[in-house]
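Protein modeling request. Please complete all fields; requests missing the sequence field cannot be processed.
Requester role: graduate student
Desired output: 3D structure, token encoding
Chains: 1
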Amino acid sequence: MLSGHVRRLPGGRKAIVYAVLVHLALIALVVVGFRWQAKPPAPPAKVVQAQAVNDAETQKEIERRKKQEREREQQETKKKHEQQERERLEQTKIAEQKRKDEDKRKAVEAEKKRKHDAQQAEIKKKKEAEERRKSAESSLKEQLVREEKERTEAKTKAEQAARAQSELARIEGLIRQKVERNWVRPAGWTKGMECVVRVRLAPTGEVISAAISRPSGSPAFDRSVENAVYKASPLPLPEDKGLFEHFRELELRFRPEGQT
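Delivered output (260 residues):
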């Protein structure tokens, strides 16, 4: 029985050997796999390619960020412009409001001035009208006074003239009587002879001059009349001195038969 067991042993050793070899192969595979994983990264060509990819991504990122920066700057510029435009519009609005307020103020001042000027013009118009009225009244009063004075003077003159005429007739009679009392009629006078003598008198009645204004045709007759006038000086005058102007110059007519 022992010999039979011994004969089966070699076959068992082979199985053990196979099993050990299998385990060794598995261990080797594990070790090789581990070393494979522990090796450095891809070969240099693959590293350069990965680096290029990374640079491209980085450049894209840089471009993206630049684009974002540009967009941000554009937004800020746009906002700044919009703010400036708002400020400009606000300033324009303020300026326009100021202009409107100034125009309104000027319009109010102009209206005040227009009303003031109108009031002053109305006051001036009323004042001028009042002055014209007063002037017209004054002129009318002056005219009435003047007319009354003229009427009074005319009346006085008329009365004086009437008195003068009456007095003249009386005084002339007295003058002729006095002259005739001093008249020496020349020889050779004839009926119908007549001369007119112009006599100028002083306020005292003194004869200033006596001249024939219408001769009789007889020089002797005319000279006798002139001599009679001078001899009769001073001639009688009215007592009213205001009537003297009517006797300053007289024309007396003489006839030899005593008729005047």
